[in-house]
Amino acid sequence: MHQNSQPTATVPTVPLIDLRAQHQALESQLVRSLRRVFASGRFVMGPNVHAFEQEAADYFGVKHAIGVASGTDALMLSLTALGIGRGDEVLVPTFTYTATAAAVCHLGARPVFVDSVAGGFNMDPADAERRITPNTRAIIPVHLYGEAVAMEPIMDLARAHDLYVVEDVAQAAGGRLGNAMLGSIGATGCFSFYPTKNLAACGDAGLVTTNDDRVAERVLLLRQQADASVLGGQKYSHPTVGFNSRLDEVQAAILRVKLPNLDTWNQLRIKHAERYRALLSDCGVQLPAPSNGGSHVYCLYTVRSPERDRLYRHLRENGIGAEIYYPIPLHLQEAYRFLGYQRGDFPVAERLAEEVLSIPIFPELSDEQVERVGTVIREFAFSAAGRAVEERTA
Ligand SMILES: Cc1ncc(COP(=O)(O)O)c(C=O)c1O
Questions:
Q1: Is the CB of 168 under 6 A from ligand 1?
Q2: CB distance 33 to 256 below 8 Å
Q3: Which of 91, 106, 194, 287: disulfide with 139, CB 3.0–4.6 Å?
Q4: End of a domain among 236, 260, 284?
């Protein structure tokens, strides 16, 4: 140590997410499963994929669950299986991850953006209705951050205008709306098992859920280069242009170990969220909560603050992981400029992009870590900067 350096007190750090904790707890089970995969020599379309698909169908309460390579592919294969393509319009929230809209663009269809509901994060059904044209074929509600979309008005809209509903459940695996599992309500449910999701693979992976036998057949066909043998036809005969989007055995084996833990992990996330609510309800930040009788499984714990950027810096300076999901709504992204939207077109989403901040949440977060995050935010709230927030939000 340099002679003049001061001994520094160790500041407890809290990561936004810690992917190691879950794997340490499950290590022996995971290793045993993976050994079996390596010993079998089957890495694609093997027994783990088929077993996981059955287990996932049972868990999500659907007739069919089809493993694919990612959440983005789940969206693309769903939309393709529903016959959506060039010239079609698909309603997509502007406040979501780019994958939701990118999947639509890759099929040659046009994303038509929809604003978020005032006071919330998810798609506003009234705004969706205003944007329906004769070319609209589908609507993609995204259960953002883990909060269930109020599906009833979306389903009513779909029935009235003959639209397919494709649920983007990438951030809400295990969430519910009444008795229904998210992903079982629309024509299809599209899941991502990216490593930071509630149900996470150790790489990329995804799933399409559906109760429709014909859609399931189409997705099965499409994920394997549309080889007719998938449906009992001739091998190397291709009735349509397909994709290569298979879930692999290694990821399926990992997901099989993890799926039985999903409810427990989601309950832990909810417990941490409740503690955050108790700690932060007087801090001038808007806290997330379930709405419309649906669940919130807190894939992300996202608060809103008019002093977001200063709060973000304060957290980072104090060793607390924080991130902005998402700083630019899709209609203002360069990628979607060709759609012709302007700043001001989606005022709720634009405000969200300026105010949202996600703070640490993962099942293995300790009570001490939650308290520490709460303390750091309280310090900010009751400092000079924070008092300004309080006055403005009063
Ligand atoms: C809302 C949403 N939709 C779709 C996706 C795409 O999933 P993946 O990364 O598995 O392709 C993600 C993943 O980050 C997401 O958060």
A1: yes
A2: yes
A3: 91
A4: 260
- Tell me: cis bond preceding 164? Omega within 30 of 0 counts: no
Residues 244 and 347 in one domain: no
Rounded Cα distance, 245 and 150, in Å: 30
For ligand 1, the distance from its centroid to the CA atom of residue 373, given in whole angstroms, is: 27
| Atom of ligand 1 minimally distant from the CA of 142 | 1
CA–CA dist 333, 320 (Å, integer): 28
- Is there a single domain that holds both residue 186 and residue 282? no
Is any ligand 1 atom within 6 A of the Cβ of residue 245? no
Q: Based on the domain organization, do 149 and 243 belong to the same domain?
A: yes
CB of 142 within 6 A of ligand 1: the answer is yes
Q: How many domains does the chain have?
A: 2
State the Cα–Cα distance between residues 43 and 36, nearest whole angstrom. 11
Any atom of ligand 1 within 6 Å of the Cβ of 124: no
Q: Are 204 and 69 in contact (CB under 8 A)?
A: yes
pTM score, whole prediction? 0.95
Structure tokens that stand for 90 in this block: 């698909």
* Interatomic CA distance for residues 254 and 36, integer angstroms: 12
| Of 303, 314, 329, 312, residue with least CA distance to 393 | 303
Q: What is the CATH number of the domain that holds 206?
A: 3.40.640.10
Give the H or E element holding residue 217. Answer: helix 213-223
Closest residue by Cα to atom 7, ligand 1, is 71
Q: How far is the CA of 149 from the centre of ligand 1 (A)?
A: 16
Q: Is the pLDDT of residue 125 over 60?
A: yes
Range of the domain at 380: 261-393
Same-domain status, 194 and 327: no
Ligand 1 mutation pick, 68, 70, 72, 193, max ligand atoms within 8 A of CB: 72
The answer on pLDDT for 5 being more than 50 is: no
- Tokens 């417990």 belong to 271
Please provide the size of the chain in residues.
Answer: 394
- Residue whose CA is at the smallest distance from ligand 1 atom 12: 170
Percentage of the chain surpassing pLDDT 70? 94
Same domain as 232, residue 274 = no
